[in-house]
Amino acid sequence: MENSTLVTVFTLSGLNESKKNKNIYFAFTLLLYLLMVVVNLTLIATILIEKTLHEPMYILLCNLCVNGLYGTAGFYPKLLADFLSDSHVISYAGCLTQAYVIYTSVMCEITILSVMAYDRYVAICRPLQYHSVMTPTTVRKLLLFVWGYPFCAILITIYLISTLPLCGSHIDKLYCDESVVKLSCTATTLSNAYGFILIIAQLAQAFFIVYTYIQIIRACLKSIEQRSKFMQTCLPHLMALINFSISAFIDAMYSKYSSETLPQSLRNIMAVVYLVFPPLFNPIVYVLKLHQIRRRVFRACARDKVTQM
Questions:
Q1: How far apart are CA 255 and CA 252, in angstroms?
Q2: pTM
Q3: What is the predicted pLDDT for the residue at 60?
């Protein structure tokens, strides 16, 4: 075993090549983050205010937006601060906290999408039983699972990481993630094994989503009415799922095949894809595709214009 050191601060090197244009990057990132906050808060506020939207599908959608805000809050404020600073460092506790927030957000995303798939499955494949299955009590239990499972699962991950002796403090990325494990002086068998279990659990949720959509598509082929319901309510969910899947795939490819031969800017883009596209485009897609939400958002905007006049 190499000599371990007491690491109190990590150095992040993802912004080393952006120092010349850091003000431009700061302005662009700030606008992007503010746009994410606005579109997600708009959708959340619309669902909370409109009592007619207090249904399982919209409640789950509201939680999806809350999770988007939660995940981006663990990344963008620190990134914006780094743009304004000449030294890009983060404390040991701050690093573990950031990793916890980002990874719980990713796990919450796939878990919420799984529950949303189940909700659409019941609505289309078992419409007569929908209100007896998706009761307020059931929805509360599903929401407890949606948030409780990722928070507890990643807490164990962070604990395992915190027990590792470290032989370095340099992270070649914009934020903290599993790169901390690579700095360990000892074997990381236990952490790797637990990580493998979490991957299997996520794959199980992915297979569940695929199964539910196979059943939904079969039901839609038998009925024009169900086909219309699919286009109205399932298509936005499917687009959100594809958005998340592509983002997660790019991040997985970065983690496995990233090389210092690639330009730093390209590595940065690959590293933050799932922190940009899902929280930005999910609410936009749902506003544009779900006419119940679109009508209320546009009506609220029109009301504000009239008030200002």
A1: 5
A2: 0.88
A3: 94
